[in-house]
Amino acid sequence: MGKLITAHGEINTPVFMPVGTQGTVKAISNDELLECGAEIMLGNAYHLNLRPGLEIIRKAGGLHKFIGWKGPILTDSGGYQVFSLAKLRKLSEEGAEFSSHIDGSRHFITPEKAVEIQEILGSDIMMTFDECVHYPAARDYAEQSLNLTTKWAKRSKDFLHNTQYAIHNTPNHSLRSGSGQANAQLLFGIVQGSTYPDLRKRAVEELLSIGFDGYAIGGVSVGEPQNLIHEISSYTASLLPENSPRYLMGMGTPVDMMEAISNGMDMFDCVVPTRNGRNGQAFTWNGELQLRNSEYKEDFSSIDKDCGCMACRKYTRAYIRHLFNAEEILGLRLVSLHNIHFYVKLIQKSRQAIKDDCFESFRLEFAGKYITTKRTV
Amino acid sequence: MGKLITAHGEINTPVFMPVGTQGTVKAISNDELLECGAEIMLGNAYHLNLRPGLEIIRKAGGLHKFIGWKGPILTDSGGYQVFSLAKLRKLSEEGAEFSSHIDGSRHFITPEKAVEIQEILGSDIMMTFDECVHYPAARDYAEQSLNLTTKWAKRSKDFLHNTQYAIHNTPNHSLRSGSGQANAQLLFGIVQGSTYPDLRKRAVEELLSIGFDGYAIGGVSVGEPQNLIHEISSYTASLLPENSPRYLMGMGTPVDMMEAISNGMDMFDCVVPTRNGRNGQAFTWNGELQLRNSEYKEDFSSIDKDCGCMACRKYTRAYIRHLFNAEEILGLRLVSLHNIHFYVKLIQKSRQAIKDDCFESFRLEFAGKYITTKRTV
């Protein structure tokens, strides 16, 4: 439990960070995010660099102003796209060349470029550019990739250091950091190393010796079996220093997040609440519901009787099911909103339980009554 | 200008009624509708009867409870679907047999059935079942169709009368009218007659002799040229009694509505604000904008500087353009919301101008600066 201080406000940890890849949490307005209790949102430097492009965001006065979000923003660097857009990129020691999935144009992203993009975006928390390795990865490949990621981490830090020095000596640098202070942007390093514990350990040591404002675990949940996800992430978490923010990237289900908090993780992001919400899957204090199922057709209760979100205060399961059947946008809006609210509240309650020194009993009680359904995505 | 009293509250006229065909104004929540100043919303008896079906809505306690809307609801009867789903229906003296566009199931809608459906829905304002005739219609066909529509109007009124008598004598009738009063539901007649002034005149006379709570002009804007739309609707409007609500169905653009108010019309509904909004077309006090156009890519002003809607208070044209380019749902949400807000405010301001006895100058000033763009739909 802690507080992370950024140029756009403090974040209480543990924290769930809704994902707004293209500068919007899908189907949800900023006011709704605030009503849900969200303290920070995510953007993606790779996607925003392609569209709308940096020039527009720079002219708007940075990403916060462009999207109208006044709270902190964390941006991913594009390292995940090295994995997810593998067919569209060529990797070299220098960086990664991507063919845009939008128009085929070529974009060469280096660690330095990734920091520069995030400086122009004005992200409160920037991520280093890394290679997120696929699963399974041969040990040789994983080791070689880790060497690259470490070099890139070093180059990111050096570039930041140099840039900040340069900015510090330049009169007009307001676009480069939200508060106008050159050191207002934090930079997090990302631990890779695939499923090899010794590589993960080496990655942590190397990043610590470079020194970052926070540390993330990347390269999990990239196709490996569930037990391996937990094994590697909990082992890696155990190596990270307690006095730095620890961020588990892209994870996960409510039960996964609770376990990760147990293992000392502080920060989470995941597309599941919105992606599955668009599909009709709702997360509740009693588990998961697929609201399109016919069992809800005459169920005039709210999605979750213990939830205070707008969807639960104003609408019923039967109505939301009808909206999905009738392909009405309001349906996916309501379930996305509810799910974001649930994720944020779950982590808020976890924070309170840590404060009250009863997190493990809170976690076990929650997991005990949480019924999972078959994943819809 | 007037007040229309319904079981779920008073409506100030002239009024714009946002369209919620399937029980939701597309992409917009009920709270947002209220924030826009909407005093009533529309539903469609034909669509709601097919999906979710009357049984579910009856069990929910009526349409208001099912959709969570506490204000007045007007429902169209399905007469428009006789026109719009012409290939899926067979017409007879008795009624219209539809093949469901959802599952092909057959549904026979008679004037009596249409009233009964709307009674179960609990609509504050019910519409009679009619034949909305296509354009062009031969005079013979138009006349024959009008004969049918008049007979159907009479049968609707008779059925209502009989039902209300029956309800009045039945202990449990709360589902059949919002307030528990048998006469709480209003029934409007619909003037047809295609583009033939004498048929329109006859239609008005026949409906008046039957006697309804309000009168609607149907069968306009069904493919006829713009000048004919105005000619027929203004002529018909001139025949309708001033002391009854006069409803111009399915119209239209801002300038059309203002002209119709000039001609004495009180009530309007139209899908244009939401349908065109989903396409990026915004309505403003200075005319129409297509927000996807590249001219807005670095335009960091609001959609309309004179608008106080959430989209205009919180977001810029450049951001909304980005949302459309990136196919993000928030984009169509914001423009739909703005357009509904604009339509409601335009009619509210018209109402004030009537009160201040300066409507014609208000209308001319508005039309003078209102620049139209090519229709996007």
Structure commentary:
The structure is a homodimer of 377-residue chains. With 377 residues, chain A is of the alpha/beta class. Chain A is 45% helix and 16% strand. Chain A has 14 helices and 15 strands. Chain A has helices at 30-36, 45-60, 63-67, 79-84, 111-121, 139-168, 197-210, 226-239, 254-262, 272-277, 310-314, 317-325, 329-355, 359-369, and strands spanning 2-6, 9-13, 15-17, 41-44, 73-76, 89-91, 96-99, 106-109, 125-127, 186-191, 214-217, 246-248, 267-269, 281-284, 287-290. In chain A, strands 3-13-12-11-10-9-5-4 form an eight-stranded parallel sheet. A three-stranded antiparallel sheet of chain A has the order 6-7-8. In chain A, α1 runs parallel beside α13, α9 runs antiparallel to α14 (359-369) and α12 (317-325) crosses α13. The longest helix of chain A is centred in the middle third of the chain and has 30 residues, at 139-168. Chain A starts with a strand and ends in an 8-residue tail after the last helix. In chain A, 53% of the residues are buried. Residues 171-182 of chain A have low confidence and may be disordered. The A-B interface holds A 22-24, 26-31, 51-52, 56, 59-60, 65-68, 297-298, 300, 310, 314-316, 318-319, 321-323, 325-326, 328-330, 332-334 and B 22-24, 26-31, 51-52, 56, 59-60, 65-68, 297-298, 300, 310, 314-316, 318-319, 321-323, 325-326, 328-330, 332-334.
